[in-house]
Amino acid sequence: MQPLAGRRVYFVGIGGAGLSAYAFLARAWGAEVRGWDRTETPYLRALEGVRVDLGGEPAPPEGWEAVVSTAFAGSVPGRSRAEFLAELVSLAPGRALVVSGTHGKTTTTAMIAFVLRELGRDPSWLVGGEIPQLGGNAGAGAGWLVVEGDESDRTVEVLQPEIAVVTNVELDHHATFASVAEVEELFDRWLAGVPHAVRGWELEPVSFELAVPGEHNRQNAATALAALELAGVPRTDAEPVLAKFAGAGRRFEPVGEAGGVTVVDDYAHHPSELAATLAAARLRGGRVLVLFQPHLPSRTRHLWRELGQTLTAADAACVTDVYAARERPLVGVTGKLVVEAASEARPGMPVGWAPTVEEGARLVAAWARPGDLVLTVGAGDVNRAGPLILEALR
Questions:
Q1: Are 113 and 125 in contact (CB under 8 A)?
Q2: Which of 4, 113, 209, 288 is disulfide-compatible with 29, CB 3.0–4.6 A?
Q3: CB–CB of 8/32 below 8 Å?
Q4: Closest by CA position to 131, among listed 144, 143, 152, 114
Q5: What is the DSSP letter of 355?
Q6: Mean local confidence (pLDDT), 37-57
């Protein structure tokens, strides 16, 4: 259970959802762990006792091997996160199961890990998001290693698990892939090289009641069940446990209620994800108001029309400027493009433009009235808006 004993690993970008999980597992498997990040993040809470250098420039100590986040690739020498994750998968004391796909991979990975743990199968897991019922984004056990694999930088292509899962296939990362055909080719090659494969889009959504809303989660659950069966878990054992899964952080996550208005936060950033989130919100009844933050200039440049059209399923929407994340801003690519598309697709719909999250929170709070559901949506830092909206409504 100590396959990394004697290793000293320095994680550059240790505060991110991915590398924080890898650091957790590396320490559990015997490595001495340190790291660097620009600022403190919530993911560092699970790494208590690990020395983390904050701010300045990353400087891996002599004698330590560096593992570098995609966000800092090229600026700091060291192994890529893909290479290190491939090693973790190959060293798993149990067997490995990797979940990838364009949408739903975080939830599906978490569903599988949750069922395995609740049934006493002692899994390890690496998930790209906070999973409250699992106590975080990583865990270490002696059973299956359950991993969320990322296609955004082709990381998943180097992973060689016993079971490979692809939830669905769309074009989401325009800086990496030129077409959906390229994404399909990537997943086809990957699935062809593993002993067992699950293709989520070929499955019927589950019919039993889940704790998480939406047709997309019924599809995620079907995919998780198929993977669990391949891992040796009978469907009759898995279903009642899966029904209790309460979701991943920032996946239709309740923030609070004030003045009769409910605020929910969601990570959706692609038109398909946004449509699924709005459909789930509609199941509740009442008006649905959205504060949406576009994510990545490259994605916004390609999908601004689709994003705007999808927002018209809400009763009112406010759009902030683009969260650039790892990319540089592009001239002329702002959240205003999404506003224009929504206004064109549904004339007369209340659509607002707010350059900042704070301004957007104030506008949506001013629109809200008792019985409304307010969604804060996006893969950036729009989750900061939920508490601001609630404060304005009190």
A1: yes
A2: 4
A3: yes
A4: 114
A5: S
A6: 94
Q: How many alpha carbons fall within 13 Å on the CB side of residue 52? A: 24
Tell me the chain's radius of gyration from C-alpha atoms.
21
Comparing 89-93, 118-122, 210-214, 307-311, the range with the smallest average pLDDT is 89-93
Mark residue 258 as left, alpha or beta (left: phi above 0; alpha: psi -120 to 50; beta: remaining). beta
C-alpha to C-alpha distance for 209 and 78, rounded to whole angstroms = 46
CB-count burial class (<10 Å; 0-12, 13-18, 19+) for 204: exposed
pLDDT of residue 290: 98
Residue 200 corresponds to which tokens in the numbers above?
């989520």
The one-letter code for the residue type at 229 is E
245: left (phi over 0), alpha (psi -120 to 50) or beta: beta
Q: How many CB atoms lie within 10 A of CB 175?
A: 15
pLDDT in tens, 165-195: 999 999 888 888 989 999 999 999 999 999 9
Tokens in use for 241? 């446990």
pLDDT in tens, 101-117: 999 999 999 999 999 99
- Residue tagged 């950036």 (tokens): 380
Domains and CATH numbers, the chain: 8-80 (3.40.50.720), 92-242 (3.40.1190.10), 253-393 (3.90.190.20)
Amino acid letter for position 103: H
How far is CA 345 from each of CA 278, 311, 342, 350, 373, rounded to the nearest angstrom? 16, 9, 5, 12, 22
According to DSSP, residue 218 is labeled H
pTM over 0.85: yes
Q: Which residue is listed with tokens 């180097």? A: 158
Q: Strand ranges (DSSP E) for the chain?
A: 8-12, 32-37, 51-54, 65-68, 79-80, 96-100, 124-126, 138-139, 145-148, 163-166, 196-199, 253-258, 261-266, 288-292, 316-319, 351-353, 373-377
Q: Are 342 and 309 in contact (CB under 8 A)?
A: yes
d(CA 225, CA 53): 41
